[in-house]
Specification:
The complex is a heterodimer.
Chain A (H helix, E strand, L loop, with lengths): L3 H16 L5 H27 L7 E12 L2 E10 H24 L5 H23 L3 H19 L6 H32 L4 H9 L9 H16 L8 H4 L5 H10 L4 H8 L1 H5 L2 H22 L5 H21 L3 H28 L17 H15 L5 H15 L3 H26 L7 H5 L3 H4 L8 H4 L3 H5 L15 H16 L14 H11 L8 H15 L8 H6 L3 H4 L7 H32 L2 H9 L1 H8 L4 H48 L7 H20 L2
Antiparallel strand pairs in A: 1-2
Helix pairs in contact in A: 1-2, 1-4, 2-3, 2-4, 3-4, 3-10, 3-15, 3-23, 4-5, 5-6, 5-10, 6-8, 8-11, 8-13, 10-15, 11-15, 13-14, 13-18, 14-15, 14-17, 14-18, 15-16, 15-17, 15-23, 15-24, 16-18, 16-23, 17-18, 17-28, 18-28, 29-30
Chain B lengths: L2 H21 L3 H26 L3 H31 L13
Chain lengths: 718, 99
C-alpha cells in the first residue's frame, strides 16, 4: 500500500508524458488531479492506520525489492512511514492535490501539449518528493532529492522560450548541484562511519556514540548534509536560485518553491535528528545560518516590487526560521512551522497567481492597488494567509513561529531570539505592504490591458464579479469556449477559488494541532513527533523488547512527570540529559512562554500597523525614506548585490578559465592539437612511403629479390 | 658426382634468370626468365633429394612444374591483354598503378 502513494502520481506522469499531446486538457489535467487525490486518500488511510498503533511502534515498512547487494553491503528499495514522514506525505499529497486542481484553471490557456507537459512534470515532481520523504535509507532519499531538483528545473523553465526562464532554470539546477554534491559526500561519509544507510540503523548507531564536543567526523557529516540542505532549502549561501525560480508558473512556485521541495532540507535534518544532535557544532552553524537567512531575506523582501519575489524572499526567510528551530534542537517546532507554512505560503502564492491571472501577467505591485473589490475571494484568502504568516494570534503561523521563538529563547540563544523577533516584525511589515499595495489604495493598473478582449487566443472566462458562484464545476467553466468577458477583472475561477478557500481554512486551522501548553492546549504534533526525534521506536527489535522500549520511554519522562513540557523536552532528545526544566520550573516556563507570546503578538500587530501607516496613510514616507537612505534602498533593491558578487567571484572566473584555459588552450591547442597532429603525422609518413609505390613491376621485383637476399643473409650470418 | 656441381649449376641458372628479370625489357622474356629461376630451384630440389636418398625432392618438383604451368598460362594471358591495351611489351610502360 505504501508504494502506491508515490506510484499513483507516477502513473499520472506516465500517461501524460506519453499520450498527453493527444489528450484534451480536461482529461490530462483531470487525470493528474485524480492521481493526486487518490494518493492523498491512500496516504490518509496509511496515516490513519499509523495512528492506531502504539506511539513507540508507529512505523510501516515496505520493501519493494533488493536494489543492490555486493559483499556485505545490501540496499533495499524500501519505504518507511513513521510519524515524521506521515506529516510530510499529508502535506505533499494534500496541498499538492489542491495545487493540481488550481492549475487546471490557471494553465487553461496553454496548448494541449504544453498543458500535458506541465501536468506530467507536476506529477513527476510529486512522485520524487514522496520518494524523498518515504525513503527508508539515504540512497532512496537521494533519488528523490535529485528527482525533485530535476522537476524543479523542468518547471522553472516551463516557459523555456523566455530567456530569463531558461536562465533561472539553469541557475536553480547548477546551484542545487553544489548542494547535492555535499549531500552525497555526507551520505558516503556517513556510510563509511556508521556502516549503514538505513535511517533507523544510523540513528541507533549514532545514539550509542558520544556527543561530539569538538569538531569530529559526525560534525563533518552533518555539516556536509547541511550544505546539501542549504542548496535544496535556499539558505545562505545557496539561496540565490529561489527568487529567480519565480520565473516558473505560479502554481509551481506554490507547490515546489514554497510548500514542499524547499522544505526537503528541513525534513532531512529532522529525519537525522539524532545524528545532528550528536554534532552540537553543526547545530550552532545551522541556527546561525537560519537566523541570518531569515533576517537578510526579510530585509530584501521589504523593498521588492514583484509580487512573487516578495513571496519568494518571504519563503527564504521562513525557511530560515525552520533551520533556526532545527539548529536550537527544537525539531518538533521546525517541522510544525514547515507544516503550517505549507498552508499559508501555498495560499499566498496561489493568491498571487490569481492576481496575476486577473491582470494578465502583471506582477509589479506598483501597477496594482485597489483590487480588493474586484477580487473578493482572492483578497480575503490572501489576507487570512498574510495574517497567518505575520503571526497574528489564533492563526496557524502564530503557534508554530511562537514555538520556535520560545524554544530559541529557552535554550539560551537570546541573540538569535532577537534576530527572530526582528524578522517577525519585518515579515508582518512586508506581507502587509504587499496586501496594501496590491489590494488597497487607488487602482494603478492599466485598465486597457485588463479590459482587453481575446487574451490567449480569444478565450473568454465568461464570469466577472458574480462569476465563480454561477459556475458549478470546473468542467462547465472549461466548456465555455469563446464567449467574451465584459471587460471586468475576473476573480479566481471555481477551481482556483476552491484551492484558495481550502488553503485559507488550513491557514487558520492548521495551528490547532500544536497549541502550546502554556495556553492550556495540547501539543498533539509535538507528542506525535517525539518518538521519531528521540528514536524510541525500533521496529527492528523483536516484539518482546518493544515493551522494554516503551518502558524506557516512560522512564525518560518519569522525572518530569507533571511537567507540561515533558513531550517537548523529549522531543529535543537531549532534554533529559541536559536536565532541562525540572518540575518546579514549570510555572516560570509557562509565564515566560506567555510573555514571549505577548511580545511576538505585539510585534505582529506593530508590523501590520507600520505597514498600514506607511503604505496606506502616508505613501510619501516610504518614497522619502528610499530617497534619503538611497544607498540602503539600492543595496536592498539589488539584494545586497549577492548575485553580482557571486557572478564576479565564481561565475566570471570560471567563465574566464573556461574560455582562456579550457577552450582556447586545453581544447583548441592540446586536444585539437593531438587529433590534428596525429593526422598530420600519418600524412607526412605516408607521403614519404608513397615514393616507394612506383607502379613499376620491375622495381617491385627488385624489392622482393632484395628482401629475399637480405633474409637469406640474415639467417646465414646470424 | 658431388652435390656441389649441381648446386653451382642451379645457382648459375638462378642468377641468369634473375638478371633476365631485372635487365630485359620485354614481358615475355621476363616470364621466360622466371621459368629459368624456377627450374634452377627444381634442379637443386632434385639434387638434394638424390643426396638424401628420398623422393621428396622429385615430388616437390612436380608441384613446382604444375604451378609454373599455371603461372605461365595466366602470365601470358595477362601479357596479351596488356599488349592489346598499350601496343607495348615494355614493363616500364605499365606504371599507372600507383598513387
Amino acid at each position: 500500500m505504501l508504494a502506491l502513494i508515490p506510484l499513483l502520481p507516477f502513473a499520472g506522469f506516465l500517461v501524460n508524458a506519453t499520450m498527453g499531446k493527444r489528450l484534451p486538457k480536461g482529461v490530462s489535467g483531470g487525470l493528474a488531479s485524480v492521481a493526486m487525490l487518490a494518493a492523498f486518500a491512500v496516504a490518509a488511510s496509511q496515516v490513519w492506520s499509523l495512528m492506531g498503533m502504539a506511539p513507540e511502534a508507529r512505523e510501516i515498512n515496505q520493501v519493494l525489492f533488493n536494489w543492490m547487494a555486493t559483499g556485505r553491503f545490501s540496499l533495499d528499495m524500501g519505504f518507511r512511514l513513521d510519524a515524521l514522514s506521515a506529516v510530510m506525505i499529508l502535506v505533499i499529497t494534500g496541498i499538492g492535490s489542491l495545487i493540481h486542481i488550481y492549475s487546471t484553471a490557471y494553465m487553461h490557456e496553454e496548448t494541449d501539449a504544453d498543458f500535458a507537459r506541465y501536468f506530467s512534470c507536476l506529477n513527476l515532481f510529486v512522485f520524487f518528493m514522496l520518494l524523498l520523504v518515504l525513503g527508508a535509507n539515504a540512497l532512496v532519499m537521494f533519488v528523490g532529492w535529485e528527482g525533485v531538483g530535476l522537476c524543479s528545473y523542468l518547471l522553472i523553465g516551463y516557459y523555456y522560450e523566455k530567456a530569463s526562464a531558461s536562465d533561472a532554470a539553469k541557475k536553480a539546477f547548477v546551484v542545487n548541484r553544489v548542494g547535492d554534491y555535499a549531500f552525497i559526500l555526507g551520505s558516503l561519509l556517513l556510510f563509511w562511519t556508521v556502516g549503514s544507510l538505513d535511517f533507523v540503523t544510523i540513528g541507533q548507531t549514532v545514539k550509542a556514540m558520544p556527543v561530539e564536543t569538538s569538531f569530529g567526523v559526525l560534525s563533518l557529516i552533518t555539516l556536509l548534509l547541511f550544505i546539501g540542505a542549504t542548496g535544496k532549502s535556499a539558505q545562505i549561501p545557496l539561496y540565490v536560485w529561489l527568487p529567480d525560480a519565480m520565473e516558473g508558473p505560479t502554481p509551481v512556485s506554490a507547490l515546489i518553491h514554497a510548500a514542499t521541495m524547499v522544505t526537503a532540507g528541513v525534513y532531512m535534518i529532522g529525519r537525522n535528528a539524532v545524528l545532528f544532535e550528536h554534532a552540537p557544532i553543526t547545530l550552532g552553524v545551522i541556527a546561525t545560518v537560519g537566523a541570518a537567512t531569515a533576517f537578510l531575506a526579510g530585509t530584501i523582501g521589504l523593498v521588492q516590487n514583484d509580487i512573487k519575489r516578495v513571496l519568494a524572499y518571504s519563503t527564504v526567510s521562513q525557511l530560515g526560521y525552520m533551520f533556526l528551530a532545527m539548529g536550537v534542537g527544537a525539531f518538533g517546532a521546525g517541522i510544525f512551522h514547515l507544516y503550517t507554512h505549507a498552508f499559508f505560503k501555498a495560499c499566498l502564492f496561489l493568491g498571487s497567481g490569481a492576481v496575476i491571472h486577473a491582470l494578465h501577467g502583471e506582477q509589479d505591485i506598483r501597477h496594482m492597488g485597489g483590487l480588493k473589490k474586484h477580487l473578493p475571494v482572492t483578497y480575503w484568502t490572501f489576507l487570512i494567509a498574510s495574517l497567518a504568516i505575520a503571526g497574528v494570534p489564533a492563526l496557524a503561523g502564530f503557534f508554530s513561529k511562537d514555538e520556535i521563538l520560545f524554544d530559541t529563547f529557552r535554550h539560551g540563544h537570546t541573540a538569535l531570539w532577537v534576530v527572530g523577533v526582528l524578522t517577525s516584525l519585518m515579515t508582518a511589515t512586508y506581507m502587509f505592504r504587499l496586501v496594501f499595495l496590491t489590494f488597497h489604495g487607488e487602482e494603478r493598473f492599466d485598465p486597457a490591458t485588463v479590459g482587453a478582449h481575446g487574451h490567449g487566443g480569444g478565450h473568454g472566462h465568461g464570469h466577472d464579479d458574480h462569476g465563480h458562484d454561477a459556475h458549478a464545476a470546473p468542467a462547465s467553466h472549461a466548456g465555455h469556449g469563446t464567449h467574451g468577458h465584459g471587460g471586468h477583472l475576473h476573480d479566481a475561477p471555481p477551481a482556483m477559488a476552491l484551492a484558495l478557500i481550502v488553503l485559507a481554512i488550513g491557514s487558520v486551522a492548521a495551528g490547532y494541532i500544536g497549541v502550546p501548553h502554556a495556553l492550556g492546549g495540547h501539543n498533539a504534533l509535538g507528542e506525535w513527533l517525539t518518538p521519531v526525534f528521540a528514536l524510541e521506536n525500533t521496529q527492528q527489535a523483536p516484539p518482546a523488547s518493544l515493551n522494554a522500549h516503551a518502558g524506557h520511554a516512560a522512564a525518560v519522562e518519569g522525572p518530569m512527570a507533571g511537567d507540561a513540557h515533558a513531550a517537548e523536552a523529549t522531543a529535543h532528545g537531549t532534554g533529559a540529559a541536559h536536565g532541562d526544566p525540572a518540575s518546579g520550573e514549570t510555572h516560570d516556563e509557562t509565564a515566560l512562554e506567555l510573555t514571549l507570546m505577548g511580545v511576538s503578538s505585539a510585534i505582529a500587530f506593530l508590523g501590520i500597523g507600520l505597514a498600514a501607516f506607511l503604505w496606506i496613510r502616508n505613501r510619501h514616507i516610504p518614497d522619502q525614506m528610499a530617497q534619503s537612505f538611497s544607498g540602503v534602498h539600492r543595496l536592498l533593491l539589488h539584494k545586497y548585490y549577492v548575485d553580482e558578487a557571486y557572478d564576479a567571484a565564481i561565475v566570471q572566473p570560471i567563465k574566464a578559465f573556461s574560455i582562456h584555459g579550457l577552450w582556447k588552450v586545453a581544447d583548441a591547442r592540446v586536444i585539437d592539437g593531438a587529433v590534428n597532429g596525429a593526422g598530420a603525422l600519418v600524412n607526412a609518413a605516408s607521403s614519404a612511403l608513397r615514393l616507394l609505390q612506383t607502379g613499376s613491376v620491375k622495381t617491385y621485383a627488385a624489392g622482393t629479390f632484395l628482401g629475399a637476399v637480405l633474409l637469406l643473409a640474415f639467417f646465414l650470418w646470424r | 658426382m658431388p652435390i656441389g656441381y649441381y648446386l653451382a649449376l642451379s645457382g648459375v641458372l638462378f642468377a641468369i634468370g634473375a638478371a633476365g628479370v631485372f635487365l630485359r625489357r620485354n614481358l615475355i622474356t621476363l616470364l621466360l626468365s622466371v621459368e629459368i629461376m624456377l627450374n634452377a630451384v627444381n634442379l637443386s630440389f632434385v639434387a638434394f633429394g638424390r643426396q638424401q636418398g628420398s623422393v621428396d625432392g622429385q615430388i616437390i618438383t612436380f608441384f613446382v612444374m604444375t604451378v609454373a604451368a599455371a603461372e605461365a598460362a595466366v602470365g601470358l594471358a595477362l601479357v596479351i591483354a596488356l599488349f592489346r591495351h598499350r601496343e607495348s611489351l615494355n614493363p616500364e610502360a605499365f606504371t599507372s598503378l600507383k598513387w
